[in-house]
Amino acid sequence: TVSAAKSLTDMAVNSAAYADEMLTQSTVTGMSVESLQAYSYAADLVDVSLDTLTGSMAKQVKSMSSARDGSKSFSDAYSKLGVTVANADGSLRNSETVYWETIDALGKISNETERDALAMQVFGKSAQDLNPLIAQGSAGIAELTDEAKRMGAVMSEDTIASLGKFDDSVQRLKQGSEAAKRAVGTVLLPQLQTLADDGVSLLGEFTSGLNSAGGDFDKI
What we know:
With 220 residues, the protein is an all-alpha fold. It has helices at 2-29, 33-45, 50-68, 72-81, 95-107, 112-123, 131-150, 157-213. The chain is 78% helix and 0% strand. The protein starts with a helix and ends in a 7-residue tail after the last helix. It contains 8 helices and no strands.
């Protein structure tokens, strides 16, 4: 019973930690926690980390902005890929839409060196880590994100928020426990110091006694 209760508690704590990570990623990337969970599921199955995926998405937003503002290297890269970064009014297109259009465009380039060069231009240093994602394509990732939802791997925003709140409480409990340990240590310090000092003296006497016994077990 104790083992089962511990397992259930561990699952709840781990779920809360996962929710906290999703909430943090959502704040950083601006993506919904539901989308992030689906992408996390898909990314794991194609051996690309969620950090690599979200990091490349963030890098691409900067690339889109640079291309729109006239940076030749970035505008040329998107031009070669046949991907448009701006709307007719000059505003940037939806970055997620552009991201998957770019992934699909890269997947159509047969020359690996040219493909990697364009990917690095758009997505930064982590571009080569995206090759499994490029091979899968947007359609393959869409299938995996749909599968994540069918499998129940995507929790609602309310559930994630509740778990995130629980994780905050767990972290506060841990910090409170550490503070309590330090307080107890401070209270017991004088007595423990005395025991430690006496221990050093006793160990010295014990060692000397062993040496002076000369191997005589009766004396020992």
